[in-house]
Amino acid sequence: MSQLLRVHCFTVSRDGFGAGEGQSLERPFGHADPVPLWSWAGATASWVNRTEPGGTRGLDDCMTRDHIRNIGAEIMGRNKFGPQRGPWKDHEWRGWWGGTPPFRTPVFVLTHHLRPSFTLADTTFHFLDATPAEALERAKRAAGGRDVRLGGGVATIREFIEADLVDTMHIAVAPVDIGRGERLWDSPADLLDRFHLDTVPSPSGVTHLLFWRR
Ligand SMILES: NC(=O)c1ccc[n+]([C@@H]2O[C@H](COP(=O)([O-])OP(=O)(O)OC[C@H]3O[C@@H](n4cnc5c(N)ncnc54)[C@H](OP(=O)(O)O)[C@@H]3O)[C@@H](O)[C@H]2O)c1
């Protein structure tokens, strides 16, 4: 079976934003409060960043469980990796995730400002200045026959949709408005020319949108 490029658990506000304005070290999501955006995922038993036992096992958990299933590499944008912009002042920043990042695969960080690869536990970060198609080819080679996850942020997902490279996409819409920042869409209907869409409301208050290529 061919390798897919999959988006999972990417969460937007009702008004279509995946991050607020003014991303910084103190506020990775800008002015937006990440709690109402992300609490649906953090409550589930399968969430990758869960440190305590327990968690829900319903519909939301099915979605977070699928996040890691058969994934062999991730592609992300530089702004997801960190709040720095422009040339690196040094290479001390190693991402938000501490010494044991949850990816456990190669991760390809797209940036015009290259730096050497490094490994933390079982995750290796590589920095790539490449077109979406080139980045995907590289990630597929590294994924050992498994699928590639497109991890965000917003600009990177938009870029890969624009290049028609995304096969499946799970977007959660949280019941909150952000108002300004990085916007994924005006409406999910924008994508119906190239994707099928199932819309599944969850008891937690989020709505899961499942897109797959026409
Ligand atoms: N809502 C969610 O589920 C979710 C998930 C993940 C992240 N986030 C949030 O999303 C925000 C980041 O999203 P964002 O839209 O600001 O940025 P982003 O998509 O993470 O990164 C965009 C940057 O990546 C680099 N880039 C992208 N494509 C490239 C290419 N083809 N070649 C070279 N460089 C390329 C460029 O950086 P250079 O300047 O280095 O060239 C570009 O400015 C953060 O606040 C993060 O916390 C939200």
Automatic annotation (TrEMBL):
GO terms for biological process: riboflavin biosynthetic process. Residues 63-188 form the Bacterial bifunctional deaminase-reductase C-terminal domain. It comes from the Bacteria. Gene3D superfamilies: Dihydrofolate Reductase, subunit A (3.40.430.10). Pfam families: RibD_C. One of its GO terms (molecular function) is 5-amino-6-(5-phosphoribosylamino)uracil reductase activity. Transmembrane segments: none annotated. InterPro entries: DHFR-like_dom_sf, RibDG_C, Riboflavin_Biosynth_HTPR. PANTHER family: BIFUNCTIONAL DEAMINASE-REDUCTASE DOMAIN PROTEIN (PTHR38011:SF12), DIHYDROFOLATE REDUCTASE FAMILY PROTEIN (AFU_ORTHOLOGUE AFUA_8G06820) (PTHR38011). This is Dihydrofolate reductase family protein.
